[in-house]
């Protein structure tokens, strides 16, 4: 195995069987040869960017609209061709057998780079020819003679490792499709200190992850993955792959990444741009629905009320309440046109209304169709009387004042927010439409004790906004995107799943989550149930059980909680053994011990997270400040000079730090409304560390950790 400093002393290059004696560069200096290719590739990328910048579009655009569109496309292309100084342009190499691919050599990187003749110098990791870099093994070499991994320090190429896949006597790496030995470069990349936002894992994607990343656009995929299995990164890389493979289609229909909170979205926001994808929108469920509902979330529900409001039965309550606004016509309709009068009897109007209700189309679409159906009934009478009306006449009749007045009476316009306001304020109205669906106690739980006077003055909760979004969709269909990624999905209520599902009714989704990390009172019990609410019951469910982030000792300790929080769920088995990565000690001096642990952790390289129960955050902030430490808040980007983040346990999900100091596990459990939710919150907090975890406790540890 060739390798170079800093991992091993430089080997004797003359013993390296992978070197090509016909290479024009010095075969005795392979590392310099690779550095030369890196330099040449960067030069080629710069040339590609300069070529785009030099484009003159004045003679190829017909008008200012076309010019503006083309200029925007060129600007995006220039951004995509930016050379990120500290991001390796390529991270791997494939040498194919002479009998396949003409014995070609391909460098695998984050984007395609070609030379002046159009020949590839770096191949995009998403291209079909790159797939063997992630899946080939000695058992299935996929025509690859040699796979080379590169190690970098900053942006400088400093090391490489080789795997001879067609040589049965050569050892392979356990990180590469089931070999016997661990790739030191692969492990070093996984363990590289984390400072700044989340980074891509494109250089370390494993075979089981790659299968999910490259699955087709037409199907929805649900990924169950424990802590450290890379499910979030897999979902983001799947978006990047789909944009590569189906760019034109997704450019028309759009893509969306949905995360649990804005801190989490800020943490992951640089992954896709690092892969050259700049146009993927990111949002939380709350932001999605409040944008549609046009209300400000200022209130908070009790756990009992939130559970009921998030229940899928509320969709039927809303449907009944909305349809109750449709009233049967009480009298005939008289339409005057010129000197003639045309009468539509009440029973015929009732038949028209009944037919529209039976079709169960959107309330707004049916309301728009009603005047046309009435006008058609008038035209039938005109034709029977010997007239020859055309479509223009029908449109004119539909706009007739009498017809419009009848529509307003029979099928009035309904404002979704006002509908929800009435349901949550009017006891009788709710009872009428929740009959047989919600119990009396459930109805009482969701009713406002002091009803607001108007939509504007109401203190809407997040669950209320989801109800308004549901009502809005009942009135007018929600626009569907081409693909949606839903992360931390286990925490969504059935009504939230429905809200997300509306955004991909004609598209597909990637659903990511861990049932053991569900920390809301309405957390989903099974993926089958969740996918049914999402409207994707036939989605494929994949499980990732190999852990790459959390050290083996840490994940084993946290997994003691699994029988109590998610019986039957597979335990994550970490590939990383790190003796000394877990320390549990009593905090005899209270906050002073916590501060001392943070100071000790800061002696290590990388990011530090202090995770504590939300109620403990003010006291710890003061204690840290007294010691001259001023921690960041979750979502604020760490820097080499500011590496300590104070994380409320409620916001820890999805985040990761090189070293974690966990304050008072019992307080984290006790802060939740029930033991299962509290233990799940603790499970999340225990699994945020990449290199080391220190658990401090003054109170006894929860017995489930015994």
Automatic annotation (TrEMBL):
Domain UvrD-like helicase ATP-binding: 204-551
InterPro entries: DNA_helicase_UvrD/REP, P-loop_NTPase, UvrD-like_ATP-bd
Tagged with keyword Nucleotide-binding: yes
Presence of keyword Nucleotide-binding: yes
Pfam families cross-referenced by the UniProt entry: UvrD-helicase (PF00580)
Binding site for ATP: 225-232
Annotated keywords: ATP-binding, Helicase, Hydrolase, Nucleotide-binding
Annotated segments matching region Disordered: 1-31
PANTHER family: DNA 3'-5' HELICASE, UVRD / RECB / PCRA DNA HELICASE FAMILY MEMBER
Protein name from the UniProt record: AAA family ATPase
Lineage of origin: Bacteria, Bacillati, Actinomycetota, Actinomycetes, Kitasatosporales
């Amino acid at each position: 195995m060739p390798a170079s400093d800093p991992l091993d002393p430089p080997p004797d290059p003359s013993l390296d069987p992978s070197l090509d004696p016909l290479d024009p560069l010095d075969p005795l200096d392979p590392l310099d040869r690779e550095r030369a290719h890196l330099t040449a590739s960067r030069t080629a990328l710069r040339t590609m960017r300069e070529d785009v910048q030099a484009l003159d579009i004045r003679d190829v655009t017909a008008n200012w609209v076309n010019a503006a569109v083309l200029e925007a496309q060129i600007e995006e292309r220039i951004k995509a061709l930016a050379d990120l100084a500290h991001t390796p342009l390529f991270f791997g190499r494939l040498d194919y057998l002479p009998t396949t691919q003409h014995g070609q050599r391909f460098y695998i990187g984050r984007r395609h780079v070609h030379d002046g003749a159009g020949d590839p110098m770096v191949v995009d990791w998403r291209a079909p020819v790159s797939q063997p870099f992630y899946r080939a093994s000695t058992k299935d070499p996929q025509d690859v003679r040699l796979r080379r991994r590169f190690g970098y320090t900053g942006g400088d190429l400093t090391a490489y490792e080789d795997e001879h896949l067609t040589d049965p006597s050569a050892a392979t790496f356990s990180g590469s499709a089931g070999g016997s030995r661990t790739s030191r470069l692969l492990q070093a990349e996984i363990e590289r200190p984390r400072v700044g936002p989340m980074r891509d894992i494109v250089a370390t994607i494993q075979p089981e992850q790659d299968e999910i990343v490259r699955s087709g656009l037409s199907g929805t995929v649900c990924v169950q993955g424990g802590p450290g299995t890379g499910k979030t990164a897999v979902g983001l890389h799947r978006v990047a792959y789909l944009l590569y493979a189906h760019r034109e289609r997704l450019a028309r229909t759009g893509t969306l990444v949905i995360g649990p909170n804005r801190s989490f979205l800020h943490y992951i926001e640089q992954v896709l741009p690092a892969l050259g994808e700049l146009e993927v929108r990111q949002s939380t469920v709350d932001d999605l629905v409040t944008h549609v509902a046009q209300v400000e979330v200022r209130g908070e529900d009790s756990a009992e009320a939130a559970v009921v409001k998030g229940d899928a039965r509320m969709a039927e309550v809303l449907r009944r309440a909305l349809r109750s606004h449709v009233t049967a016509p009480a009298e005939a309709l008289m339409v005057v046109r010129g000197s003639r009068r045309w009468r539509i009897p009440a029973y015929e109007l009732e038949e028209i209304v009944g037919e529209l209700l039976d079709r169960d189309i959107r309330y707004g679409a049916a309301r728009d169709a009603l005047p046309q159906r009435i006008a058609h009934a008038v035209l039938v009478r005109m034709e029977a009387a010997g007239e020859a009306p055309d479509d223009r006449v029908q449109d004119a009749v539909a706009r007739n004042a009498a017809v419009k007045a009848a529509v307003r009476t029979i099928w009035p316009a309904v404002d979704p927010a006002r509908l929800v306001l009435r349901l949550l304020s009017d006891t009788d109205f709710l009872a009428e439409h929740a009959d047989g669906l919600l119990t009396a106690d459930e109805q009482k739980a969701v009713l406002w004790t002091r009803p607001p006077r108007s939509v504007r003055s109401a203190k809407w909760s997040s669950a209320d906004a989801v109800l308004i979004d549901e009502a809005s969709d009942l009135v007018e269909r929600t626009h569907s995107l081409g693909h949606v990624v839903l992360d931390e999905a286990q925490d969504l209520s059935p009504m939230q799943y429905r809200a997300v599902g509306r955004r991909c009714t004609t598209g597909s989704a990637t659903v990511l989550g861990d049932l053991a990390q569900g920390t809301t009172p309405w957390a989903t019990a099974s993926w089958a149930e969740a996918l049914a609410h999402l409207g994707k019951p036939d989605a494929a469910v994949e499980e990732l059980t190999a852990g790459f982030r959390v050290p083996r000792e840490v994940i084993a300790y946290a997994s003691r909680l699994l029988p109590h929080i998610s019986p039957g769920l597979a335990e994550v088995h970490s590939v990383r053994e790190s003796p000394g990565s877990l320390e549990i000690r009593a905090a005899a001096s209270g906050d002073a011990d916590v501060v001392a642990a943070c100071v000790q952790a800061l002696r290590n390289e990388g990011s530090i997270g202090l995770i504590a129960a939300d109620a403990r955050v003010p006291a710890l902030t003061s204690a840290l400040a007294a010691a001259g430490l001023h921690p960041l808040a979750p979502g604020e980007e760490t820097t080499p000079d500011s590496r300590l983040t104070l994380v409320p346990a409620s916001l820890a999900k999805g985040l990761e730090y090189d070293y974690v100091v966990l304050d008072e596990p019992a307080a984290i459990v006790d802060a939740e409304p029930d033991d299962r939710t509290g233990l799940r919150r603790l499970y999340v907090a225990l699994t945020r560390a990449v290199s080391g975890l220190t658990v401090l406790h003054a109170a006894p540890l929860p017995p489930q950790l015994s």
